[in-house]
Amino acid sequence: QVQLVESGGGLVQAGDSLRLSCAASGRTFGSCVMAWVRQAPGKEREFVASISRSGVSVVYKDSVKGRFTISRDNAKNTLSLQMNSLKSEDTAVYYCAGFEGRGATLQQNYYTYWGQGTQVTVSS
Prior knowledge:
The chain has strands at 3-7, 10-13, 18-25, 32-39, 46-51, 58-60, 68-73, 78-83, 92-100, 113-114, 118-123. The protein is mainly β. Strands 2, 4, 5, 6, 9, 10 and 11 form a 7-stranded mixed beta sheet that branches. A 4-stranded antiparallel beta sheet has the order 1-3-8-7, with no helix packed on it. A hairpin with a 4-residue loop joins strand 7 and strand 8 (78-83).
């Protein structure tokens, strides 16, 4: 089992940067593929970035490529998302999610662990 707690959300202006963190508890974080997922009001949930359990492999949704960077520190049981050049359309609740596996994937049906989310609001 892995428990996930996100932090770092807030209100920023378009063009600003923000860094989200996810603290994981439990013994199996290092065995988990992790991802950042977001959901805007009235919209479907979308996976924006995933990272393999080793941290070597990452994959991004096209709309955030070049702006967002996912990373992890298995020694500290933390997952991060550095978000640069934020746009109003990035406004959403951001969740970290994970499952015990190997390779990064944006396929949501694999993910079994979820945090409670942190709000990111980007004003234009």
